[in-house]
Specification:
There is one protein chain. The protein contains five helices and nine strands; from the N terminus they run E-H-H-H-E-E-E-H-E-H-E-E-E-E. By secondary structure, it is of the alpha+beta class. The strands form two sheets. A seven-stranded mixed β-sheet has the order 1-2-3-4-5-9-6. The chain has a two-stranded antiparallel ribbon with strand order 7-8. Strand 2 and strand 3 form a beta hairpin. The model has no long low-confidence stretch (mean pLDDT 93).
Length: 168
């Protein structure tokens, strides 16, 4: 793993579109096996999603963080807390920076927030066919859960997801 000087900080309103762009690229690559170039050509960010996330950022009490290298967003993490469980809703790293410690730094941020809020566990859903992500999460202490989760609809496909948890 390469040790990059990654800065983790709260996601800013001006960064929302870049964060959602990274999310789109990652989904096209992971779910449809697109190349990075083809994924970038197919970016189609929903304006409603942009506005929704911008509103959450403006409210100031959200748990969204960006990972930056030289002031450029290379990943982001979105979470919320429900009944003492930290739920990771989004964790996306630009493909050019995967395997370089960015995701691990974002997960450390999630651990710190879970601990400071007395959460009993961290939970997330991941597409069943996303073997790289599942391997990454398990390497970072997540285990399979018995919880069922609804499928993810992406680009006309229904993708089965599994739930992983990490006990704090």
């Amino acid at each position: 793993m390469i040790n990059l000087n990654i800065i983790i900080e709260k996601l800013q309103e001006a960064e929302v579109e870049k964060a959602l762009e990274i999310k789109d690229i990652c989904k096209y690559i992971s779910y449809l096996n697109f190349s990075v170039e083809k994924a970038q050509e197919n970016i189609n960010i929903d304006p409603n999603e942009v506005e929704s996330l911008k509103k959450k950022v403006q409210q100031g009490n959200l748990l969204y963080f960006s990972a930056k290298l030289n002031n450029n967003i290379v990943g982001y993490l979105g979470m919320d807390i429900i009944e003492s469980i930290l739920m990771i809703r989004s964790l996306f790293i630009h493909p050019d920076y995967q395997g370089k410690g960015v995701g691990s730094k974002l997960l450390l941020k999630a651990d710190k927030i879970a601990n400071s809020n007395n959460c009993s566990k961290i939970s997330l859903n991941v597409v069943e066919d996303n073997s790289l992500a599942i391997k990454f999460y398990k390497k970072n202490g997540f285990i399979d859960s018995d919880s069922s989760t609804s499928p993810l609809n992406f680009n006309g496909q229904e993708l089965k997801r599994i739930n992983l948890v990490k006990v704090i």
